[in-house]
């Protein structure tokens, strides 16, 4: 099978890009990557280590313009005879994959969490993670977008060739006016470890203890909806149904009671630790490990315990 | 300004999720259907705010059967001027988007708004599909939308930050949290909704591209393991040795 994987990476190869290539390799076939973004050729070539045979790159395409990216991928799909196109289910994919589905009349499965089963059906989460479904595609060409952190990238090959590719995308109709990204933060959708807190922290001045724990763990920080709405923390840290949906390996929630809308955005986490003064907090029902206690006392103790653990050889 | 807002029905957030017919059908028993919150709170309300500021007309559209008229009347009660129901069961996103695009093609809208996704299928597909079918620019997951003449300025949450973009109308936008505040319909709106025009349109001949074959529920979680708040070393050891996440 000819598989085309689309990746968009600026500065470095995103983990989600490696996941998408490794996912295609697991399905099996000849894998061509079509890439946009500013990552240099040498770095793109390392995608061969995850299973890519070749990388086609067009750095002239603006990823904010879904029409441009769609034209590029459609052209690459035609030139490689792609029967399957794989995306990571990120902001760009959410704009481009549906367009490509219409352009190619190719069925789209969004948010896959596993490779296709023996019948070619793909597992996805539905009802905001409260259930799952198996989806089949009726068209000859298929498109799958993979939910980040659903598939572990593994190295097994060697570097591959990188070729310039003219996507014939034309001029962009979307103008980027401003981009604001705070430096040094771990992007939430890619984070394997997340420390989150809610109104139980009582005020933004107390977030230092959340950041301290996140720092020693190498984790991203997050918050519940009320905290973002009040303005204690920026909106891009809000995890939950209306915020960012995340699937980290570890989600530590302090001072969050666990409303159903919050759970809907974090229930894909592999392990959940809940710290709350209220033993009846509903979040404990979804947790793997629970600590009934005051976050103001527990978080510093946990930070010290992690520091001690990190300083001991294992 | 002619605005089209696409709405979908979804089970209330607190609905019990279960399946019937050998896990092939969603069990609707006891389920209360609502307007998909992203469609209602963000797309519809922002559309209304723009209409109130700039003038014009706001039409809502859904693909669904006669039972879906309850959610249409709710959207009319919130303030939409008129409604269109494409008389068909929404089979998949491609089918739904194509039906909406067919209607939009012959009715010339300046702005088409949807929610960022539905809370039942979470696919984020319909808006982009409509945009491609109409060959229009598309901005996904916008958290702010302002219109100045024929230019739209939007904010989007990107990984770890915010991006501001501009595009010319006509345009398709999917809306996320931040766009607007929820509006509760008042009695006057509810009364007015009863007499607002609701046009029923026959569906176009469209084949769906995907199908849900089967559903299931996640395995029940094992009971939470409680840790003494004074023994965080134990928690760290469990996260390392048992859960293997640090």
Automatic annotation (TrEMBL), chain A:
SUPFAM superfamilies, sorted: Adenine nucleotide alpha hydrolases-like, DHS-like NAD/FAD-binding domain
Molecular function GO terms recorded: electron transfer activity; flavin adenine dinucleotide binding
Pfam (any one)? ETF_alpha
* Cofactor binding, note field: Binds 1 FAD per dimer.
Instruction: Give the matching InterPro entries.
Output: DHS-like_NAD/FAD-binding_dom (IPR029035), ETF_a/b_N (IPR014730), ETF_a/FixB (IPR001308), ETF_asu_C (IPR014731), Rossmann-like_a/b/a_fold (IPR014729)
Swiss-Prot/TrEMBL cofactor(s): FAD
Please tell me where FAD binds in this chain: 199, 224-225, 255-262, 276
**Keywords tagged on the record:** Electron transport, FAD, Flavoprotein, Transport
Q: Where is the Electron transfer flavoprotein alpha/beta-subunit N-terminal domain?
A: 3-178
What biological processes does GO assign it? Answer: fatty acid beta-oxidation using acyl-CoA dehydrogenase
Q: Which family does it belong to?
A: Belongs to the ETF alpha-subunit/FixB family.
**Know the name of this protein?**
Electron transfer flavoprotein alpha subunit
**Natural source organism:** Fluviicola taffensis (strain DSM 16823 / NCIMB 13979 / RW262)
Automatic annotation (TrEMBL), chain B:
What keywords would UniProt list here? Electron transport, Transport
Give start and end of each Electron transfer flavoprotein alpha/beta-subunit N-terminal domain: 23-210
What CDD domains does the entry give? ETF_beta
Q: Name one GO cellular component term.
A: cytosol
Q: Name one Pfam family in it.
A: ETF
**Which GO molecular function entries does the Swiss-Prot or TrEMBL record give?**
electron transfer activity
Q: Which family does the entry's similarity section mention? A: Belongs to the ETF beta-subunit/FixA family.
Tell me the protein's name.
Electron transfer flavoprotein subunit beta
What species is this protein from? Fluviicola taffensis (strain DSM 16823 / NCIMB 13979 / RW262)
């Amino acid at each position: 099978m000819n598989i085309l994987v689309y990746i968009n990476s600026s500065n470095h190869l995103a983990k989600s890009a490696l996941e998408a290539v490794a996912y295609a390799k697991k399905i099996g076939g000849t894998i061509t990557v079509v890439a946009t973004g500013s990552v240099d050729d040498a770095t793109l070539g390392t995608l061969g280590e995850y299973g890519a045979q070749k990388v086609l790159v067009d750095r002239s395409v603006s990823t904010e313009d879904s029409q441009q990216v769609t034209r590029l991928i459609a052209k690459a799909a035609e030139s490689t005879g792609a029967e399957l196109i794989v995306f990571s289910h990120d902001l760009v994919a959410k704009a481009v994959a549906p367009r490509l589905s219409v352009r190619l009349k190719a069925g789209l499965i969004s948010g896959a969490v596993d490779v296709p089963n023996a019948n070619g059906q793909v597992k996805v989460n539905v009802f905001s993670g409260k259930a799952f479904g198996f989806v089949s595609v009726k068209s000859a060409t298929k498109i799958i977008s993979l939910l980040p952190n659903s598939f572990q990238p593994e190295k097994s090959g060697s570097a591959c060739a990188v070729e310039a590719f003219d996507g014939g995308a034309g001029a962009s109709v979307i103008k980027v006016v401003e981009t604001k990204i705070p430096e040094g933060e771990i992007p939430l959708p890619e984070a394997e470890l997340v420390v989150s807190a809610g109104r139980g922290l009582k005020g933004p001045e107390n977030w230092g203890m959340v950041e301290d724990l996140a720092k020693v763990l190498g984790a991203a920080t997050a918050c519940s909806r009320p905290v973002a709405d009040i303005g204690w923390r920026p909106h891009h840290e809000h995890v939950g149904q209306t915020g960012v949906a995340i699937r980290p390996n570890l989600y530590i929630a302090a001072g969050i009671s666990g409303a159903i809308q919050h759970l809907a955005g974090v229930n894909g986490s592999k392990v959940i630790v809940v710290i709350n003064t209220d033993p009846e907090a509903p979040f404990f029902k979804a947790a793997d490990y629970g600590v009934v206690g005051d976050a103001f006392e527990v978080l510093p103790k946990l930070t010290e315990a992690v520091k001690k653990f990190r300083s001991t050889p294992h | 300004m002619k605005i089209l807002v696409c709405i979908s029905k979804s089970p209330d957030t607190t609905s019990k999720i279960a399946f019937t017919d050998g896990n092939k059908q969603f069990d609707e028993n006891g389920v209360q259907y609502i307007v998909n919150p992203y469609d209602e709170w963000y797309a519809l309300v922002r559309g209304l705010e723009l209409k109130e500021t700039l003038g014009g007309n706001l039409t809502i559209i859904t693909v669904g059967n006669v039972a879906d008229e309850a959610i249409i009347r709710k959207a009319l009660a919130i303030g939409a001027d008129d409604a269109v129901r494409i008389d068909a069961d929404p089979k998949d996103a491609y089918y739904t988007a194509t039906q909406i695009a067919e209607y939009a093609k012959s009715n010339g809208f300046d702005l088409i708004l949807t929610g960022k996704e539905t809370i039942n299928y979470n696919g984020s597909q319909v808006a982009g599909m409509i945009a491609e079918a109409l060959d229009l620019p598309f901005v996904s997951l916008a958290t702010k939308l302002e219109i100045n003449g024929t230019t739209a300025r939007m904010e989007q949450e990107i990984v770890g930050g915010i991006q501001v973009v501009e595009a010319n109308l006509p345009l398709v936008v999917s809306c996320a949290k931040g766009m607007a505040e929820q509006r509760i319909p008042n009695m006057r709106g509810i009364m007015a909704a009863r007499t607002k025009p609701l046009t029923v349109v026959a569906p176009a001949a469209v084949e769906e591209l995907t199908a849900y074959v089967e559903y299931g529920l996640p395995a029940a979680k094992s009971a939470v393991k409680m840790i003494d708040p004074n023994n965080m070393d134990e928690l760290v050891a469990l996260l390392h040795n048992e859960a293997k996440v640090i």
